[in-house]
Amino acid sequence: MLKRVVQSLKCTLISIIIIFVLVFILAVISYTTGISNSTLTVCVYLSAIFSVLIGTLISARICDTKPLISSLITGLVFYAVILGITFILKHNITFNTHFFAMSAGIFATSVLGAIIGK
What we know:
- This protein is an all-alpha fold.
- The chain contains four helices and no strands.
- The chain has one domain.
- The longest helix has 31 residues.
- The model has no long low-confidence stretch (mean pLDDT 88).
């Protein structure tokens, strides 16, 4: 069990690095072009989904048994990190459609990563 958690944490770190790189690229694009907020929001959602998918795919591939559990652990830790960063930056968490869309996207992508990974 401990091995699965450590592997999931490593995969979560990969996902977090990917999303930071993608969000940085989006920030540069936003600064240099006239991209709209709605387009930028969709791109951030897609970046999160892509980074979780990559992390959960790796997690499912490297685990010996129960890839769904490993992928869900990766997704849950990623979700907790994103919530923590949001709370640190905004000092609150707003439960609105954006919150629920991001939550559903992360968990659905975790399951999808496990299915595709194995």
